UniProtKB/TrEMBL annotation:
It comes from the Bacteria. Belongs to the short-chain dehydrogenases/reductases (SDR) family. It comes from Pseudidiomarina terrestris. PANTHER family: OXIDOREDUCTASE, SHORT-CHAIN DEHYDROGENASE/REDUCTASE FAMILY (AFU_ORTHOLOGUE AFUA_5G02870), SHORT-CHAIN DEHYDROGENASE_REDUCTASE FAMILY PROTEIN. This is SDR family NAD(P)-dependent oxidoreductase.
Length: 241
C-alpha cells in the first residue's frame, strides 16, 4: 500500500492514454491527485503521465480476467478512491460488428461490463471517502441513436442505465453521474467534408475541445447535490440530431 494515496485524493481514469482521458489525467495531476491511469495500448501517453506522477495500469477491458486484475492492482495502490471516470471506449460501426463478432462483444464489454465490474468492486473504496464520485462518459446518441452505430449506441445506453441504477444503490456515500459529449475533438481520419457537416448540424458551430469536458467533470465532482444526472457537452448538437 502506498502512503501517497493517504495524503492525496485518488482518481482512476480508464482510457487515460489519449484524447480526453489523457488531458483529464494531466488536469487532475495538477490538482495534486494521485492518478491511476488505465490504458490498453496507448502506452506513450501514459508514459508521459507517469513522468508527471501518475501510476499506469494496463488492462484489456474486453477481457473479464483483465478487469478483475485491474481492480486488484488498484487496491494495491490505494485504500480510498475519490473519483472513478469510466472513459475507455471503442467506436465500431455496423459493418465492423456485423463482420467481426469479437468487435460486437467488445462494444458491450468496454462500455457496459467493465464499468459495471469497476463500480461494483470499487464501491467500498469510493464510499470510504464519504464523498466518492463516479462519472461515466456516455454519448448524446444514447437518447437519439445513430442507425450507423447501432451496437455502440445500445452499449452507451446500457452505461447510462448503469449510471442511474448505481446512483440509487450507492447513495448517499457515492454519487454517480454521466457526461454526454458531442463534437468535442474530431478524429484524424475525419476529413473536412465530415467536419463541416457535423459543425453545420451543431448550433454553436464550433469544435468544443477538451476543456469543456474537464469543466463538466469538475462540476459533477464538486456539486454535492447532483446524482443520477447527465450533462450534455455538445454545443447543442443533441437538439438537432
Amino acid at each position: 500500500m502506498t502512503t501517497t494515496s493517504k495524503q492525496k485524493p485518488v482518481a482512476l481514469i480508464t482510457g487515460a492514454g489519449r484524447r480526453f482521458g489523457f488531458e483529464l489525467a494531466k488536469a487532475l495531476l495538477a490538482e495534486n491527485y494521485l492518478v491511476l491511469a488505465h490504458y490498453n495500448s496507448s502506452r506513450d501517453g501514459v508514459a508521459e503521465l507517469e513522468q508527471l506522477g501518475a501510476i499506469g495500469l494496463q488492462a484489456d477491458l474486453t477481457q473479464q480476467n483483465a478487469v478483475e486484475l485491474l481492480i486488484e492492482n488498484v487496491k494495491t495502490h490505494t485504500d480510498r478512491l475519490d473519483l472513478l471516470v469510466n472513459n475507455a471506449s471503442c467506436f465500431f460501426n455496423n459493418e465492423k460488428v456485423n463482420q467481426d463478432r469479437s468487435a460486437l462483444a467488445a462494444v458491450f464489454q468496454v462500455h457496459v461490463q467493465a464499468p459495471y465490474l469497476l463500480i461494483h468492486a470499487l464501491s467500498d473504496l469510493l464510499a470510504s471517502t464519504g464523498n466518492g464520485v463516479v462519472i461515466n462518459i456516455t454519448d448524446i446518441y444514447t437518447d437519439s441513436p445513430s442507425t450507423d452505430y447501432i451496437a455502440y449506441c445500445a452499449a452507451k445506453a446500457g452505461l447510462a442505465n448503469l449510471t442511474q441504477s448505481f446512483a440509487k444503490q450507492l447513495a448517499p456515500e457515492v454519487r454517480v453521474n454521466g457526461i454526454q459529449p458531442g463534437p468535442i475533438l474530431f478524429l484524424p481520419e475525419h476529413d473536412s467534408e465530415h467536419r463541416d457537416k457535423v459543425l453545420a448540424e451543431t448550433p454553436l458551430k464550433i469544435e468544443g475541445g477538451l476543456d469543456p469536458m474537464i469543466q463538466a467533470v469538475r462540476f459533477l465532482r464538486d456539486n454535492p447535490f447532483v446524482t443520477g444526472e447527465f450533462i450534455k457537452v455538445d454545443g447543442g448538437r443533441a437538439l438537432v440530431i
